[in-house]
Amino acid sequence: MLDATQELIEAGGYLGAGLNQVIAASGAPRGSLYFHFPGGKDQLVGESVRRAGRAIGSDLEGLADSSTSVAEFVEAVLRHLGRRLEGSGWHKGCPVATVALETASINTSLQEACSEVYASWEEALRARLAGHPDADDLAVTILALVEGALLLARTHRSLEPLDRVARRIGALVD
What we know:
Distance between the termini: 43 Å
Order of helices and strands: HHHHHHHHH
Radius of gyration: 17 Å
């Protein structure tokens, strides 16, 4: 159910992940949905967002370990996210952004789930920037640039925004 929910929210956001769609996509019986997620759709989507956030966070850790510089790390992250986006037919941008945009002002539990994920990614970036005099500000800036680049890449169906942002971030961190 979590896999199906993640696929649906990445492609169509919170509003695009109806419970009937989740049940159909997952093949799970309706009763198991409320057994495992008594909080209903909000609990299911919140857990899916957190789970997707952990997966991307794990990817960030792996890329950080294999990068020799901050610029190389960010470029690797953008390349990874770009391959993920393009490989999905431009459906898999950020697993958090659409839900955050749709629900942050009206749904506290989902706002908190999205906030937790963004905070964890920011922390991963901050850790990679350790020792840089502006690590806190740069971590937020990089995250915002990556999120914006993903939105533009998905909208334009082009990896060019990701490439451009990678170059600018490289200049920022050097």
